[in-house]
Amino acid sequence: MKFNPLMMCALFAVALAGCGGDSRNLDTSTAPPVVQRMVAGGAPHTAQGDSPAATVFSIAGYRDNYTVVKNQETNVVTVTSSIDHSVTTYRNPGLIKFADKWTSFDIDGATGQVYRLYQAAFNRQPDLAGLGFWIAVNQAGRDLNGIATDFVASAEFKTLYGDNPANAKLVNAFYNNVLHRDGEKAGVDWWVDQMNHGAAAFAVLYSFSDSGENKTNLAAAVQNGLDFVPYNQGGPIVPKRSSYENKVAAASVLGAQPLPPEVAAGNAVAFADFFQDGSYSMVTHTLEYIPDWSMTEFGHIRFYQRDKSGLWIDRTAVLLKDTQGCLHPRKAVVADFNGDGKPDVFFACHGFDRSPFPGEQPHILLSQADGTYQNKTLPVTCFCHAATAMDARGDGFADIVVTDNMVHATPFFLVNNRDGSFSVDTARLPPELKYKAIFSIEAIDFDQRGAYDIWIGGNEPGATAGETTTDYDTVPRILKNDGKGNYPVELARDLTPIPDYGLPLDIVFASGKIYLLRTNIGGGPNNYGLSFYTTTAVQVIDYQTGASTMPYTHKGAYGNGMFWVNWLVPTNGKVVSMESAYGITLP
Questions:
Q1: Around Cβ 49, how many Cβ atoms within 10 Å?
Q2: Helix (DSSP H) and strand (DSSP E) numbers for the chain
Q3: What is residue 178's DSSP assignment?
Q4: What is the pLDDT of residues 476-497, one digit of tens each?
Q5: Which of 216, 390, 405, 558 has its CA 20 to 30 A from that of 440?
Q6: What pLDDT score was predicted for residue 468?
Q7: Residue 456's closest CA among 516, 372, 534, 530?
Q8: What is the C-alpha separation between 340 and 348, in angstroms, rounded?
Q9: What number of CA atoms fall less than 13 Å from residue 213's CA on the CB side?
């Protein structure tokens, strides 16, 4: 942005009524920049100099699974999938909507202006969620002057430029942070003089951000489109990267609620936007066999949708033709297993619950292009008492981790092959877990470092009647991710066991505290001899200090006839039982 009075006059006209004369009396607030707003939703986008109008396209996949290249001469955009290597071309698209991010080609319009303003204000590439937010703010009616004012008032801006910098200091900082060079003396003097005569910091910031020099500097970064995470765009709810995060997201909306009777009996329940209407719906799996003798009465899968009064209505027929599931389901987990931005479901099942504990093949529901689900039986046999899912690669193809103390005799990964199939991997978890009585598992990023750790729980020392400890017992444990997707035992962190309630069933991590939902399995100093699964307790562990308390215990039947609780969820700053009939609420 080499100093040129005529160029500066034209540039600064967005903030000042004119150059020349006495600018000390000019009110910059009455001369806002010419503002464009990006067209939202499915309306057409008109690219500069092109007719007819370009269109908005949607791709059922995640942005990071595609390369996007725009031919600067023809305006043809080529999108190549890294999954199946398919190639699609679009002539002059205005916007491409991927499942998780949108890519805008409105470089010279409002989207580009917001991007450049963001970059200029904070001397960094805009984070995608933040950019999406400010694009939405612009669409809602706040012009670029207003957004620039908001940026100047922000804590990040003040940290970068100072709380109330002198005009000369601010102008020099704009040269360095926006244009990444020292300002020539004539240019610096001119801008300082404008500010000394009333030009506001927000107007100068905008002028630097939208200057020809800054556009040239950023051209390479934006030539293939601008990615952003749309803010509050409505439409379907995109699955999060882990089944635990999906559980938490649903709970934040739904809270505790009355659930169908099959949830208490069979445990398997999960929530996601299965009907793709922007709201949470429910999937369950019934338990229909009699564990004492029957090995053929398989359960069935059901989908529910809420009506206007909040009641759950069975609408299975809309989504699923083949409803037969497992013999003995234990847990349902939601993640995206086929990379299309829609929720899928894995059912952890363990089969006949008597000796010889043969296990069974789990089921998975995969979303289809027509909005229905395919019910697949995976060709692996396990005594899968629990499962968790996590998209460690961030590509929309989540892996699954299951417990299996009978068939494989160890927890193991089902690695997503990205074609609807999974491969067994028993090597990623420590060999010390072999033959342990592990029945509960969850993947949680405890330290917010972008790497999922794995919590496991099972029969604890002294928790089983007639035993002090055995080689099969295990304390609850967090298997720390080494950053490469492995979980070496030397990084593991043990948590406090509670023999009286010696089987942890579920975990919630909220506000720096670990909540473990527990029941008894016949042992312990105070519950010795009680029948299995006849009590409930919640243990709270401070994640930093390890300090443990037991704020909730219960013996006897609840109002629904059950003696133990299957799931906890966090909602509205509390941790509650998913089923409202149990009435558990903890701070």
A1: 8
A2: 12, 30
A3: I
A4: 999 999 999 999 999 999 999 9
A5: 558
A6: 64
A7: 516
A8: 22
A9: 20
Residue with tokens 């999922």: 452
**DSSP for 538-587?**
EEEEETTT--EEEEEEEES--TTS-SS---EEEETTEEEESBGGG--EE-
d(C-alpha 126, C-alpha 307), whole Å: 40
Contact 258, 285 (CB under 8 A): no
Tokens 């920049």 belong to which residue? 33
Q: What is the DSSP letter of 30?
A: G
Tell me which residue of 270, 330, 93, 116 sits closest to 208, measured CA to CA.
116
Strands 477-479 and 585-586 come out as: unpaired
What pLDDT is recorded for position 39?
29
Pairing of strands 226-228, 269-272: unpaired
**Pair 19, 9: CB distance under 8 Å:** yes
Q: Is pLDDT above 70 for 54?
A: no
CB pairs under 8 A, 24+ apart, for 542-550? 542/512, 542/513, 542/514, 543/446, 543/509, 543/512, 543/513, 543/514, 544/512, 546/495, 546/496, 548/495, 548/496, 548/498, 550/498
Annotate 421-482 with DSSP letters as a single string. -EEEE-SSS-GGGTT--EEEEEEE-TTSSS--EEEEEEPPTT-BTT-S--TT----EEE---
DSSP sequence for 272-337: E-TTSSSS-EEEEE---S-TTT-S----BEEEEEE-TTS-EEE-HHHH-S--B--SSEEEEEEE-S
- Is the dihedral angle over the CA atoms 471, 472, 474, 479 positive or is it negative? positive
pLDDT in the model for residue 471: 84
- For residue 232, pLDDT beyond 90: no
- CB neighbourhood size of 392 (10 A): 19
User: Could you tell me which residues are beta bridge partners of residue 80?
Assistant: 67, 87
Q: Which of 45, 156, 57 is nearest to 98 (CA)?
A: 57
- Between strands 56-58 and 95-97, the pairing is parallel
Other beta carbons within 10 angstroms of residue 142's beta carbon come to 16
Question: What is the token pair recorded at 442?
Answer: 């969850």
* Tokens matching residue 75: 């305006």
pTM confidence score: 0.85
Q: Which of 466, 457, 449 is nearest to 528 (CA)?
A: 466
Residue 81 DSSP class: E
Q: What average pLDDT is seen over the chain?
A: 90
| Domain range 110-228, CATH class | mainly alpha
- Strand ordering across the sheet containing 503-510: 503-510, 513-519, 535-542, 548-555
Question: For residue range 389-446, what is the model confidence (pLDDT) as tens digits?
Answer: 999 887 889 999 999 999 999 999 999 999 999 999 999 999 999 999 999 999 999 9
| Domain coordinates in residue numbering, the chain | 46-104, 110-228, 236-384, 429-580
Strand, helix or coil for residue 108: coil
Calpha distance 264→567 (Å, rounded): 10
**Degrees (nearest 5) of the Cα angle 255, 256, 258?**
130
Instruction: Kindly give the residue spans of alpha helices, DSSP state H, lying in 142-299.
Output: 144-152, 155-161, 167-174, 185-196, 201-209, 212-222, 243-254, 261-266
| Cis-peptide, bond into residue 93, ω within 30° of zero | no
